[in-house]
Amino acid sequence: MEGGGGGGAYGAAKAGGAFDLGRFVQQPQVLARIASAVFALIVFSCLVGEGYTNSPSSPQLFCIFNHNEDACRYGIGIGILAFLACIFFFMVDIYFPQISNTTDRKYLVLADLGFSGLWTFLWFVGFCFLTNQWAWTRAEDVHIGADSARAAITFSFFSIFSWGLLITFAYKRYKMGVEDFARSYMDPSPEVPTPYSSYPNISHDNYQQPPFTHTAEGPEGYQPPPVY
What we know:
- The longest helix has 39 residues, at 146-184.
- Strands 1-2 form a two-stranded antiparallel sheet.
- By secondary structure, it is mostly helical.
- It has 5 helices and 2 strands, in the order ααββααα.
C-alpha cells in the first residue's frame, strides 16, 4: 500500500477537510468510545473510593471483594488503562481525517482493533473475577461500599459490550481500507497492441526508390552466345 494519497481511506474523510464537531460526535465509534470511557471511570472510581474498608475493631484496610487485594487492583488497573486508552483513541479519531498517509492509517486502525479486542477480553475476565469474589464476600465484612461494589461489577459487564462494539467498528474501518486498496490496485484490462512504426508519420505506401539506383538488366530479347 502506498504511503501517500490516502484521502478517504479506512472510512475517514479526505485529508485536509474541515473538522465538524457535530458530525464527529455522531460517529458510532466515537459514541462507543465515550461510553467506554465513562464506564471505565465509574469502575475505577468506585473501587478507589469505596473498594477498601476496615472492620470496626481494626484500622487495617482490606478489599471489599472477599478481602482479595488482587480483585481491587485488577479492577482499578484495567479501569485506569481503559480510560487513558479511550482518551488516546479519541484524539486519534479527531486527527484521523488529517492523516494523508494510508500506512499510518492502517496501523492506527489495527492498533484500535487489537486493543479493543484485548480489553474486551480483560473486561470479561474482570467481570467474572469481581462477581465471583463478591459472591464469596461475607455480609458482616461489608460495612460501607456495597453499592460501589455492585456498580463496579455492573459497569464491568457493560464495558464488555462497549468494547465489543469498538471491535466491530474498527474491523469495518480496516475492511473498508482493504477494499479500497483492492479497487485502486486492480489489474487493468488487457489491450490489443497497435502496430509499431519505427519512423512515425511515415507511411510505407509513400516509399520511393532511392536515386542513382539502376537494375542490371540486359537489352530486351538479348541472349548470351552459346558456349562450345
